[in-house]
Design a protein that fits this description.
The chain starts with 5 loop residues before the first strand and ends with a helix. It is an alpha/beta fold and 232 residues long. The protein is built from six helices and twelve strands.
Length: 232
């Protein structure tokens, strides 16, 4: 199993739904159970043995860059955005830092636990760059804490999902996955959603999903944080 060498953490958003906390603190540093929410993903990447982490920053970026500079055991590269470029725009802006090999991409407001083999190891084991541009972790919606309404379920179908279980459906995109930076060639500049790239890959039968084994939390609102803290 060839290890993934680079991870991209998406951390540049305004965190509007977490106001007033994000008026003075960047969303990734808002505490969940007395730890910055981004720290949970960093710990998962440490345990995996990641070589390099690329993080995009924008809103209150000085606080975030100061925090990251203190992570002496991690090699971190910063992709600065004058204003948040959304998920797809953030990846495109960071493309020069990502190289030309598969990359983990993780939302900084996602927390998860593993049941048996870790999610990052499972994604690595199932990744096949010859036929995949994206391999996205999927989470059973009924067991998701903090999920927003959205169209994520449209990307997860029996024919593109490894180990689809009808009893767990519908699934949502879990904000964790592997992608190949080649998908950024020809991508638009400026703000855009990564869903544009997902749709393009799906049309070419190069987007795949892998159901998560474990618990999953999205800490996008104060209520979500409280529920996550209760369950953790």
């Amino acid at each position: 199993m060839k290890k993934i060498k680079t991870a991209m953490l998406l951390a540049a958003g305004y965190g509007t739904r977490l106001k007033p906390l994000t008026d003075r603190t960047p969303k990734p540093l808002v505490p969940v159970a007395d730890r910055p929410m981004i720290e949970y993903a960093l710990d998962k990447l440490r345990a995996y043995g990641i070589g390099q982490i690329v993080i995009n920053v924008s809103h209150l970026k000085e606080q975030l860059t100061d925090y990251l500079a203190r992570q002496k055991d991690l090699t971190v590269k910063i992709s600065e955005e004058s204003e948040p470029l959304e998920t797809g725009g953030g990846l495109k802006k960071a493309a020069p830092l990502l190289g030309d090999e598969p990359v983990f991409v993780i939302n900084s407001d996602i927390l998860w636990t593993d049941d048996g083999e870790t999610a990052l190891d499972r994604l690595t084991r199932h990744w096949d760059g010859a036929k995949m541009d994206f391999l996205l972790l999927a989470q059973s919606k009924s067991r998701a804490v903090g999920h927003d309404q959205g169209e994520d379920h449209l990307f997860i179908k029996p024919e593109n999902t490894i180990g689809w279980n009808a009893a767990d459906a519908p699934y949502i995109i879990a904000g964790i996955g592997i992608f190949h930076p080649r998908v950024l060639r020809g991508a638009p500049d400026g703000k855009f959603s990564v869903k544009i790239l997902w749709r393009r890959a799906m049309e070419q039968n190069r987007l795949f999903c892998l159901p998560h084994h474990g618990r999953w939390f999205q800490t996008g609102t104060i209520a979500d944080i409280r529920k996550t803290e209760e369950e953790l």
